[in-house]
Design goal:
The chain is mainly alpha-helical. The chain is built from ten helices and four strands, in the order H-H-H-H-H-H-H-E-E-H-E-H-H-E. The protein has one domain. It has a two-stranded antiparallel sheet with strand order 1-2. Strands 3-4 form a two-stranded antiparallel ribbon. Helix 3 runs parallel beside helix 5. The C terminus is likely disordered.
Length: 290
């Protein structure tokens, strides 16, 4: 990695980490607004990839919907309105199909346009909204606890990505999926998984217990770390697959030293819902310290 590239990454991290931590701790509309902005930027990048691949998504409409989805989750949470979720999703689909009547001729593949648009909305806005769901999980009783819970998949994602890079660079030889991501190796994937499990155990012991009053069995923490670690790597590979089809190296050049927003959150988009699902399964948490 070039020195200038590394410096750019450090600067971005120094700025981004306090912003994210502050928004997560504050919660409410502040967190929802941050998620909405990131979702919209990531959706726009995904539509750009799709356009490079020959698709014609309803990009502006999809970006707006991706922006509104986390805000809708927030307002649903505080009870400002209570729409039936399935009916609301059906209305969005119907609206996009109706919009395609005027925006896409039969020769412009309206079916593909609507499908790609919906994918962008749910791949970014819906999956990222699980950060909000974790912040206000049933086990959360304080802002500090909610912040600790949200940062659980964030930290594990960072550990997995970092460990995979350095282990793969040091001892990696056999390629994991060369047709999708030529730089990833089997050794890097195994190393990332192992470090993710250890990080999960350490985080559960030294963060979740004192800051969130949540306790996990050591074996449970290791299993959760393995599951989240697999999700992290799948998320990265899925975005690589999409970029391969679109014929692009990065989703954009918006973030100095990092590529695009989607490049930065691709793994997290998988880790967040998996974490929420695992922590919502009955009896995953052995005990709750109040």
């Amino acid at each position: 990695m070039a020195l200038s590239n590394l410096a750019a990454r450090v600067v971005v991290a120094v700025i981004a980490i306090p912003v994210v931590a502050g928004a997560v701790y504050t919660g409410g509309v502040v967190l929802a607004l941050l998620l909405a902005i990131v979702s919209a930027l990531a959706a726009r990048e995904l539509y750009g990839i799709a356009e490079h691949g020959g698709y014609t998504p309803l990009a502006r409409t999809g970006v707006v919907l991706a922006f509104l989805l986390p805000l809708g989750v927030h307002y649903f949470h505080i009870g400002r309105f209570v729409p039936p979720e399935i009916a609301l999703g059906a209305i969005v689909i119907l609206a996009l199909l109706a919009l395609a009547l005027w925006r896409r001729s039969p020769e412009q593949h309206p079916l593909g346009a609507v499908a790609t648009t919906l994918l962008g909305v749910f791949y970014t806005g819906a999956l990222l909204s699980f950060a909000y769901a974790l912040r206000y999980h049933n086990y959360v009783v304080t802002a500090r606890a909610g912040t600790a819970l949200v940062f659980y998949p964030l930290i594990l994602t960072w550990v997995s990505d970092t460990a995979g890079f350095f282990v793969g660079r040091a001892i990696g030889k056999r390629k994991l999926m060369p047709s999708v991501s030529p730089g990833k190796t089997v050794a890097g994937a195994v190393g990332a998984l192992a470090f993710c499990m250890l990080a999960s155990w350490a985080y559960a012991r030294w963060v979740l217990v004192p800051f969130a009053s949540l306790g996990l069995r050591p074996a449970t923490a290791l299993v959760l770390g393995a599951a989240i670690g697999v999700a992290v790597q799948l998320g990265d590979l899925v975005e690589s697959l999409l970029k391969r089809e679109g014929g692009v190296k990065d989703s954009s050049h918006l973030v100095p030293g990092h590529g695009g927003v989607l490049d930065r959150i691709d793994s997290l988009l998988f880790a967040l819902p998996v974490t929420y699902f695992l922590l919502t399964i009955p009896h995953v948490l052995l005990f709750v310290i109040r």
